[in-house]
């Protein structure tokens, strides 16, 4: 079968579209023929050796796949050949077929498209966990979302509205701010003079919960814009700069800095993760959240697509198709 292969750690353009061994259905392995494959920011970090995890090379990157089951191992009890499913794992998804552990696979209702299913896994899963468990967002609170036109940002905007918050979306261009507004943001802002803009937008009260996948100077503005008892959520560093926090700000302003690592959460708290996914699927079926799918690209185009995602040029979710 064909797959995107990282032969060694290095620039994204060194990825190859090459032959790769097909997965074997043994034990609790479910083999999925990919209909679509989700693209995520960490995929690009992983192949460059910049992510928390560093698997031995060569390897196939990719976290999300949706498609149909074509084979199951002899210990699989929850799935059969022909089932429509989605799966999330640390890597291996950029391929025509994916072998996934039974515990990482979920059945898909017919009403959910394969592309939407991929978006609901990592992007919406991260944002949901961030706002629900880590941020403990409450109805009536003010949520600020940086990178509000990206995959996790759009998800955070929609989930924030579903949870009853007033949402401020921050994005770098007028077109991206329109994406955030269309996703449901009550207020949209740019990054220029963000501290002053947030003060005006919150009538001086500050932000109750801040969702930050960007880092850099935007984090610095957020760290000075938090409300009393606020929660500043650290999601990632798409700007390329890991900021430093003057911790005296958390003391005098009385807010908390909270780390969000969705991948570890899914492993350490699988029951809570499963309940989160049930809630997200329910919200999707009820029309409360709806992924923005920017485009569908051939699997062979994965390197170019990843370059654009890491360059913060994408809006919404991008998926690959074998």
TrEMBL record:
It holds the Pfam family ADH_zinc_N. Signal peptide: none annotated. InterPro entries: ADH-like_C, ADH-like_N, ER, GroES-like_sf, NAD(P)-bd_dom_sf, Zn-ADH-like_protein. Residues 10-320 form the Enoyl reductase (ER) domain. GO terms for molecular function: oxidoreductase activity. It comes from the Bacteria. This is NADPH:quinone oxidoreductase family protein. It comes from Neoaquamicrobium microcysteis.
């Amino acid at each position: 079968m064909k797959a995107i292969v990282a032969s060694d750690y290095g620039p994204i353009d060194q990825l190859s579209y090459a032959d790769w061994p097909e997965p074997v259905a043994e034990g609790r392995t479910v083999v999925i023929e990919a209909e679509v494959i989700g693209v995520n920011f960490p995929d690009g970090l992983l192949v460059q050796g910049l992510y928390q995890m560093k698997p031995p090379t060569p390897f196939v990157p990719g976290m999300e796949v949706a498609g149909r089951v074509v084979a199951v191992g002899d210990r699989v009890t929850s799935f059969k050949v022909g089932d429509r499913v989605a799966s999330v794992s640390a890597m291996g998804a950029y391929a025509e077929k994916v072998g996934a552990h039974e515990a990482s696979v979920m059945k898909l209702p017919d009403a959910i498209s394969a592309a939407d299913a991929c978006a609901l896994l990592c992007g919406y899963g991260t944002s949901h966990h961030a706002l629900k468990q880590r941020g403990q967002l409450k109805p009536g609170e003010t949520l600020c979302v940086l990178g509000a036109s990206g995959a996790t940002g759009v998800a955070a905007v929609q989930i924030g509205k579903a949870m009853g918050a007033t949402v401020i979306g921050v994005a770098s261009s007028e077109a991206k701010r329109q994406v955030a507004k269309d996703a449901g943001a009550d207020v949209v802002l740019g990054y220029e003079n963000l501290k002053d803009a947030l003060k005006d937008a919150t009538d001086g009260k500050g932000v109750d919960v801040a969702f930050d996948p960007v880092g850099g100077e935007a984090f610095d503005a957020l760290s000075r814009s938090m409300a009393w008892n606020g929660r500043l959520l650290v999601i990632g560093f798409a700007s390329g700069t890991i900021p430093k926090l003057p911790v005296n700000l958390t003391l005098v302003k009385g807010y908390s800095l909270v780390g969000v690592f969705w991948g570890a959460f899914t492993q350490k708290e699988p029951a809570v993760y499963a309940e989160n996914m049930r809630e997200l699927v329910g919200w999707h079926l009820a029309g409360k959240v709806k992924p923005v799918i920017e485009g569908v690209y051939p699997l062979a185009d994965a390197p170019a697509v990843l370059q654009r995602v890491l360059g913060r040029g994408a809006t919404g979710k991008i998926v690959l198709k074998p």
